Amino acid sequence: MSIATAAPIWAPYWRFARAGFRRESRYRLAAAAGLLTNVVFGFVKAAVLMAAVEAAGGTLAGYTAGGIGAYVWLSQGMYGAIQLTGDAEIGDRVRTGDVAVDFTRPVDVQGAHLATDLGRAAFTFIPRGIPSVLIGALTTGLALPMVPLPYLLGAVSLFLGVTLSFLCRFAVNLLGFWIIETRGVRTLYMVISSFLCGLFVPVPLFPPWLAAIAAATPFPSMMQAPIDVVSGRVSALDALGVVGLQCFWVFVIAAIGRVLIVTGRRKLEVQGG
Amino acid sequence: MADSVPAAAGRLAPYVAVVRARIRAQRSYRTSFRIDLLGSAAIGVIEFGEVWIVVHSVGTLGGLNVRAILLLFGLSNLAFASGNLIAGHLDQIPTYIRAGTLDTFYLRPQPLLAQLLISDFQLRRLARMTAATTVLVVGFGLNDIVWDVRTVAVITMAVTFGTAIFAGLFVCAAGLQFYLINGAELTNAFTYGGAYAAGQPASVFTRPLTLFFGYLVPVVFTGYLPTVAILRLDSPPGLPSWLVWCTPLAALWVWAVALLLWRLGVRHYQGGGG
Amino acid sequence: MSEPEPDAPAIDIAGLTRTFGVRRPLRRRGAEPARQVVAVDDLTFRVERGESVGYIGANGAGKSTTIKMITGILVPTSGIVRTVGLDPVRQRRRLAYRIGVVFGQRTQLWWDLPLRESFEILAAIHRLDPAVATRRTSELVERLEMASTLHTPVRQLSLGQRMRAEIAAALLHSPELLILDEPTIGLDVLSKLRLREFLIAERAEHGTTLLLTTHDMGDIERLCDRILMVDHGALVYDGSLPGLVRTVGARRVLVVDLATPAGTLPTFPGVEHLGSQGGGIRHRLAFDAETTTAAALLTAVAEHVTVLDLAIEEPAIEDVVRRIYQAGG
Questions:
Q1: Residue C246 neighbours by CB under 8 Å, 6+ apart
Q2: In whole angstroms, what is the distance from residue B86 CA to residue C142 CA?
Q3: Are C10 and C177 in contact (CB under 8 A)?
Q4: Is C182 strand, coil or helix?
Q5: Nearest C-alpha of chain B: how many angstroms from C119?
Q6: How far is the C-alpha of B30 from the C-alpha of B35, rounded, in Å?
Q7: Which of A188, A253, C71, C136 is buried most deeply by CB count within 10 Å?
């Protein structure tokens, strides 16, 4: 006899998201510390890039001073949400075998963790995202669009960017099924992803060969894409194309993640993990 | 009962023994060790790439061209990598405290800070030093440098005292950890933030940044000032080129603060001082 | 009082107090004002050289805090503590050469390396003469029967093996004072017995002073001539175990399962029959450790009935403490 529930299918995931949000909200000191670090990096980045724009005579790869300011502070603000640091929570669960418990629950493992991460990311806008942009506006100055469309589309783009970042990290963590100590891989991932996603240097500034490499990876779609959309650097039709590309990568990485889960799970069962 | 006065087995013997043990322990994890090395080398290359891209796109930034950037990055990153090797693992202190294992160090007859400094000697950090050294050597080759006593003195001073500066910054961070158990990220602002700022041409810094990274967290001494001195370039009024000879003072300042913060932190942990 | 006198007591504590301010973590708003928790309250006692002292009390009674102050990890809020004549906070490093400590839950060994190497490193850390170190290591390895585990990485040792290793590690530099914090917790009966025998032999040979915290009355019985009991940070008893038992009237209980049910058992002097279960299959007999031993009682019982199985219930520390308070001690 099955127990009929009236709860819709997305109910547990909404719960996970709320849990992720609430958990993140508890670390006030860490959030404040994170903002401070964000701001320090932001000032240095802004100084260097603005000097570059000036040295290039006012525009560099399509960026004006205001545009580069927007890039700097939006990237710093989004950093908390996009979370490129290779945290090992899932990897640890795989290593210790705790993940077997996750598989017995009637929710999709990837979906559950994704929902939790989205909740977490949503919270970061409060102590890190908005304040970073505000500080940027008050100090170095930045140029943001005055019409609503970039922000609406930007919200979608940001959602996709956070999702994509999570899916990639998830996949990297799942390598723990095969590699015992994932720290080296995670560090490598962190460095490559933060470089190619446009955290330190905007992707439009990359020399052609590097830009081609970046385009072959999902990373620019994590951070550069939402920044470009929100700041209005890409407009209307191009923005839709950017979002479309993000959707493509979300689909691909999600699929890879699911393949890894299935094969990893099989390995776990064979090992009697 | 054994004599309580320690036998003459060499003052350094305890430290050597622990370091060798750490190296042996790491070699036992083969594959991940190699990935670690690869990762560390990649980090070095990518960090250089970040500065290189910006300067390359405009040719000259803050008076430094792409070849000068090799020196800037090489010197500052080598100092950072060496400092990180010496003291980077102190960020594990909150973990030790939570697990209660910090107390184990109290039971041994060496100074607490000294024990912690050698407690975790990471071979993979050597790889980061290699990447930085490579960039630096390339920089020596590609730049027009007058190899005289002055140049050698500046380079030696930059690398040795630069290492001391970064190691000192990590010790500052560690001292603060005793207060900020959950706020570890706060110290990243001046440790990793310092490394980031050290690799940029400081001539583009705004006044507050110059004050912060030039005098408070003096990482400007590890890369920019030596580069300008070696290449005999002009520097902005806030950072006169003769300042490079004060690098030892900068290191002294950092260590004075570091030891103070360490003492305050340890006292807080032990509950002393009210 | 900072020069080590050879006759200084092993531990000398006077008026020792330690309070902790319990702060609300930063995250909560509307914080309560800081509460003071008194972990150790005006403690005064002395342990002379060569003594063997059991330091007991309920969880949270202040035992670990006292030990941390004795070893220099924590600074007292007030009062004085001197360990082998030294100030543990100011002279920590000098003290480290002369005391050995084993924390039951935490390891002092190098996790990833073979056991042998931990001993070598510790010998270097304590700056032992190589010949002395070799001799001492062999002695300890032989007496603790660890020869077979010397090449095993510490993380692969069983709990019993690891505890023996920890004790060897703590004794390597032949300290004058050995402090053991819950050393037998989680060990099987055989391991406990062997460990106790080792400690007795070691003390007999080297005169090491021993301070032991434990919840196991068997440890106390076998190892300690003196008991210090703390409750809520204050010293509530200082004397011998028989004295404690006498004061408290706490009793051990022998539980016997019989082959055939018996309605009653013969009475034995100093033994109270607490009841039976399963229609006379299981009987519980409380006995006074002063008048008889478990073995003697068992023999006496077995003369009258066939015993299939037995168990011994120890008086819980909490029980003993409660009784002490009730006795007004």
A1: C290
A2: 39
A3: yes
A4: coil
A5: 11
A6: 9
A7: C71
Contact state of A184 with B205 under an 8 Å Cβ cutoff: no
Q: Tell me the C-alpha distance between C78 and A200, whole Å.
A: 53
Backbone angles phi, psi at C231, to 5 degrees: -145, 125
CA gap B94, A234 in Å, rounded: 45
**To the nearest whole angstrom, how far is the Cα of A26 from the nearest Cα of chain C?**
7
Distance in angstroms (rounded) separating the CA atoms of residues A229 and A149: 9
Closest CA to A49 of A60, A34, A37, A33: A60
Q: Using CA atoms, how far apart are residues C57 and C62, in angstroms rounded to an integer?
A: 8
Which residues 21-50 in chain A show a CB within 8 A of chain C?
Answer: 26-29
Q: Does B95 touch chain A (CB under 8 A)?
A: no
Provide the 8-state DSSP code for C89.
T
Do strands C271-277 and C282-287 pair parallel, antiparallel, or not at all (unpaired)? antiparallel
Sequence length of chain C is: 329
Tell me the pLDDT tens digit for each residue of B133-172. Answer: 999 999 999 998 989 999 999 999 999 999 999 999 999 9
CA distance B241 to B237: 9
- Angstrom distances, CA of residue B155 to CA of A64, B75, B161, B199: 38, 8, 10, 16
**CB under 8 Å to A183, separation ≥6 — which residues?**
A86, A88, B32, B36
Q: Which of C93, C120, C207 sits opposite B110 (nearest CB)?
A: C93
What is the residue whose two structure tokens read 């006995």?
C287
Please report the beta strands in chain B, taking only residues with DSSP state E, as ranges in sequence order: 60-61, 64-65
Task: Find which of A25, A28, A123 to mutate to test the C interface (most C CBs within 10 Å of its CB).
Answer: A28
Taking CB atoms and an 8 Å limit, are B58 and A179 in contact across chains? no
State whether residue B20 is helix, strand or coil: helix
Tokens of A73: 């502070």
3-state DSSP assignment of residue B162: helix
How far apart (Å, rounded) are the C-alpha atoms in residues C323 and A12? 52
User: Using CA atoms, how far apart are residues B7 and B255, in angstroms rounded to an integer?
Assistant: 32
Q: Is the pLDDT of residue A85 over 90?
A: no
CA distance linking residue A72 with residue A41, whole number of Å: 9
* ipTM, two decimals: 0.87
Rounded to the nearest 5°, which phi and psi values hold at C39?
-85, -40
Minimum mean pLDDT range among A125-139, B137-151, B210-224, C32-46: C32-46
Q: Describe the crossing of helices C130-143 and C159-171 by its angle, rounded to 10 degrees.
A: 150
